[in-house]
Amino acid sequence: MGDSRANFFEHLHPATIPARSAAFTYTFGLGGISVLLVLVLLVTGVLLMFLYEPSLARAYSSVAEITYEAPYGWFVRNLHYWAGQWLVITVTLHMARVVFTGGYKRRRANWLIGVGLLVLVLLLDFTGLVLRWDADVSWALLVGTNLLREVPLLGETLYRLAVGGETVGAGTPVRFYGWHIAGLTVALLFLGVWHIWRVRRDGGISHAAHAPRLSRRALVRVEGLATLIVLTALGLISLLWDAPLAPPADLNAPAAHESAAPWFFLGVQEALRFGSPLLAGVIAPLLVLGVLAALPYALDRAAEGEGHWFNAAGRRAQIVFTALLLIVIALTVRGALR
Ligand code: HEM
User: Fold this and answer.
1) 120 Cα nearest atom in ligand 1
2) Among candidate residues 91, 78, 89, the one with its CA nearest the CA of residue 236
3) How many domains does the chain have?
4) Can you give the CATH number for the domain in which 185 is found?
5) Which atom of ligand 1 is nearest to the CA of 107?
6) Tens digit of pLDDT per residue, the chain (338 long)?
7) Which atom of ligand 1 is nearest to the CA of 28?
8) Domain annotation covers residue 301
9) Has residue 278 been placed in a domain?
10) Phi-psi domain of 63 (left: phi exceeds 0; alpha: psi -120 through 50; beta: other)
11) Is residue 116 part of a domain?
């Protein structure tokens, strides 16, 4: 098998792995693609940090300079933007794969770490959007952050922690910058490394016990090919479609432009039409997260069916997950069609 000459990427895996786990149609490489997107975000994010200035006066104009003046700045910004959008989708699909194959069985701790990663990815995309400081950030700042105020007892403190003062103002861009590049990113890296370490600690990716085994070299080849395909696609999208940049934000006249949530929070925006901000904007999203977190504890504690698509033991978990996903998708589509 030539393992004495194993290269760095091969060492990231056990010497042999169950053939089922390596089969592309089992994981669809979704966890690995998410890791790759996080790496692209880190590299492009560091490059953006050289030019971005988190102040009221310079936030928008520094983004405009990156986009229109810095050599290849537009391309770096596009890569960062598209990798961030894709990550929301690949992580959601990865979570769905884990549910439908019973990948959470005997891996509850890692499931919980995963739920934490999902929250961090959404918050990173949200704080990143605000850093643009263009007209599109008005929903985020006027509706999104105000939802924090609805949290009983802690509301005002949470709001001030998020916006850096009594109201949105001079302290806000640097506060979002701090959360985006340090607070949330460090947490994502910490949980991300823990998550991947736990996959190995849990005995590798879920699989049927007596599956035939395969050399890790074969897996690394598939990963290499997937990396090339994803990077090429991301590069092409970034060449063809620019990350949005609206006119500068004018928070004193928010009605002057349409105030819409970013696409991944359109579901929350739509839910707000059906109930009070506390109920629809705080309790309902927390309930969704609570049900997700409780899935391997309350809905399916059985070990049978692990590693099998649509296994019978996990039916209840699969149905509840599908229902939640459909509700979120329906609300998002409704919000998008308005
Ligand atoms: C930034 C976000 C995430 C990254 C980078 C990531 C990465 C990975 C990787 C590389 C694997 C192994 C290969 C694979 O299954 O594709 C994995 C497995 C796993 N992930 Fe994630 N993941 C993320 C988010 C999540 C989320 C949101 C959940 C669920 C709520 C989750 C739950 C799991 C579980 C339970 C496993 C083990 C699955 C099995 O053994 O079949 N992960 N993750």
Assistant:
1) 1
2) 78
3) 1
4) 1.20.810.10
5) 35
6) 445 567 888 888 887 777 766 667 788 889 999 999 999 999 999 999 999 999 999 999 999 999 999 999 999 999 999 999 999 999 999 999 999 999 999 999 999 999 999 999 999 999 999 999 998 888 888 888 999 999 999 999 999 999 998 889 899 999 999 999 999 999 999 999 999 999 989 988 887 544 667 777 877 888 889 999 999 999 999 999 999 999 898 877 655 456 689 999 999 999 999 999 999 999 999 999 999 999 999 999 999 999 899 999 999 999 999 999 999 999 999 999 88
7) 16
8) no
9) no
10) alpha
11) yes
